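WARN  no MSA supplied for this record, continuing single-sequence
INFO  ligand: guanosine-5',3'-tetraphosphate
INFO  echoing inputs
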Amino acid sequence: MELLKQRILAEGCALNADVLLVDSFLNHQVDVVLMQAIGQAFAAVFAGRGATRVVTVESSGIAPAMATAFHLGLPLVVCKKQASRILAQDVWQAQVRSFTRGIQYELTLKRAFMPAGERVLLIDDFLASGEAALGVLNVLRQAQAELIGVGIVIEKAFQNGRNRLAEQGCTVHALARIAKMGPGEIVFAE
Ligand code: G4P
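INFO  complex generated
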C-alpha cells in the first residue's frame, strides 16, 4: 500500500534493526483517515472469503481492525490481554509471550463473542515472530472457529512470523513489508 509506505518513510523511525517507531500515525497518535484507507485496502483483499467476524488484539490493532470491520460490514471482537475478574469464566485463553516487549500475557476471548463455526479475519498492526497471531489461532481453535486470513499493517519480513503462520495453514496479507531497517534506513520487501 503506497500511501502507508510513504508514511513509514516520512515518519517511521527505526530505533534499531528490530523495532520501528510509528507512533505518530499508528501506535500512539492515530491517523483516522489513513486507518480508513487501510480498512478499505484490507476489505478489498479479503472480500469474498466468507468472513463473519473481524478479530484483533488490544490495543494498537483496534484502529485498523475497526476500519476493516466497518468496510466489510462485520462485527469486531477485541481479544484482551488481561483477564479481568468479571471475565474469569466463560472465556477461551492462550498464553502469549511478546519478544519485542519482553512480557507474557493471557490472551482472553469471551466465549459468547465467538460461537463455533465463525469464519474469522484477524487484523493486527505488526507481525514480528507471530506470537500474538498464533495465540489468536489457539483461542479460535478452542472456540471451533476458523481463521480464514490474517491482515497485517506492517510486517517485519526479516522475522519468522509469516512462516510460523504458514506452517499452521494461515494466509497472511501485509500492507507494508519491511525487509531490513536500521538508524536512518528502512528497506521494503517486494
Ligand atoms: P509477535 O506477536 O508478532 O510475536 O510480535 P512481538 O511479540 O514481538 O510484539 C508484540 C508487541 O510489540 C505488539 O504490540 C506489536 O504490535 C509490537 N511490535 C512488534 N514489533 C514492533 C515494532 O517494530 N514497532 C512497534 N511500534 N511495535 C512493535 P502490543 O504488545 O500488542 O502492544 P499494543 O498493541 O498495546 O501497542
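The CA atoms of residues 11 and 22 lie 7 Å apart.
INFO  checksum written, moving to next record
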